[in-house]
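Teaching assistant here, posting this on the class forum so everyone can see the example we discussed in section. The complex has two components, and the goal was to see what a joint structure prediction looks like when all of them are supplied at once.
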Amino acid sequence: MSFRKIFTPYIHEDKCHSLKFYRSNGGYEQARKALNDWQPDDLIETVKAANLRGRGGAGFPTGVKWGFVPKQSDKPKYLAVNADESEPGTFKDRLIMEKNPHLLLEGIIICCKAVGIHHAYIYIRGEFVFGANRLQNAIDRAYSEGILGENCLGSDFKLDVTVHRGAGAYICGEETGMLTSIEGDRGQPKLKPPFPAVEGLFGCPTVVNNVETLANLPYILEIGAEEYRKIGPENSPGPKLFCVSGHVEKPGVFELPMGVSLRTLIDEHAGGVWKGRKLKAVIPGGSSAHVLTADECDVAMDIESLAAAGTMLGSAGVIVMDETTCMVDALLNIMRFYHHESCGQCTPCREGTGWLEKIAHRIAVGGGRMEDLDLVTEVCDRMVGKTICALADAAAFPAESIVKKFREDFVAAIENGGSPAWVKRHPANTGGAAAHV
Amino acid sequence: MTVTETLAFSDEAMKKYEWLLSRYPTRKAALLPTLRIAESEFGELGVPQMKYVADLMEIPPATVFGVVTFYTHYRRAGVGKYHLQVCSTLSCALRGSGDVVSRVTERLGIGVGETSDCGLFTLSKVECLGSCDTAPVIQCNDDYHEGLSLEDVDALIEQLRQEAGKGGA
């Protein structure tokens, strides 16, 4: 079977986001079948058999996650749709919400029928005002057409969908942070267990799924688990949205089968490294992933292959850096991000991200010391696995890998009085002057 | 608090607020969206506005303050009419967001975190806006301005000045 795009086939059409357009291409037929013909358990089994794995970053099998929700519960159950999309380098869910919002809604209906959920909250990051409006318009239309509400698509199934806007906090992309934020609090993560499937939103069983994950569901029902599993590698199959940004000729979102080669993605789909320059480094799965060198890019973009290469598919946010990039500056930029976004609950993260930023900063501005390189590794060791959520790990992974794989950039910055950009701006600085900033 | 007493949601805002309450099993869950209503009703979220929301929702003011200050995207008191938020995270930095910040600084004579004397512009550096393929990006209030050249930055500032001159939003 040749590869068929399911998220993006019509994104260049004017009215691709409209209900009419969506329906004219078979939209909501799978939701109708799910509501009227399918038994919930069969839906869960089908998604398990398809081996759909979460597209938010962790890659957890979606059907298995649904299976953790208690069948009998005297409490209501909820779906929290993770549309926070805050991982640097990631901009795929935005595309679905802006260009294909009904696909997301159809996926939501299928999930809710499978798990017995009657209220879904879509947590969309606060900055996506246009996307939130577009989503709300699609939801309003769906209610007025009887797709959502008391009797979804002519069935006896009731489903409400509410858009909940975030307000600018990376940590709300972490599932328990997101749930806390929907509850009206500061978005600080919570210790697991209890897992959201058992005790999540408002203390009730909750499924948390990413936008792209849910958008796969109509297609799985349409072609069946067996056919779906044939797309890409069997252990992480399916169509996938890859985001490519940074130093390439044609940055963008590319819909391809899982398992496309990273080098093909960069060279063919994204037009290659810009300005005829050479490749230096690639972050394959959002800024939380271990960095790859130019020589390490012949790797398949799927969960297992990237894990075997010592990094991760994550959110499939590929950030490309050309030969002119100073990795000290890149590290400083990434560490500033994590330090800014640490919620501050756990000391290893709150302090560790700050230390990493400070160390990267002093190396960049000419105050670095050779022992700083080991210090980065030491700080990272004291962060990974020692906090409530994975933000500390997300900062430590790029830090330790950038320093290890691009050590020569750091040595040069320490010896030359700062990163090339700093030295260019401050030619008289012989180093050390800014060490105490 | 005399200031608080003069603040009140319009009828339309109050309707929106009541609709919000119907969407959540707890009142507190409506806090984040209610703050958005307050933001658009009052133009900014200073202490009096936060106090109003706290009273309305029967939530301790300290809790409301804690929530507003935890997040970066609420429109806090003292921000200019146009809040120029330049994305500075890696993908934008690789494609020249630093030059965009410098250009805005040059054109408006304000540094990062400052507001122009005329009260029109505030400049901020913000973290990833999720628009990395169209870097560099400025979010001005609700709108994204993407794929900016330095000339685009000049044009944006000029356009906003003219818009303000006409008394537009």
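For the discussion questions: The first strand of chain A starts at residue 78 and ends at 83. Residues 347-364 of chain A form the longest helix (18 residues). Think about how each of these relates to the inputs above.
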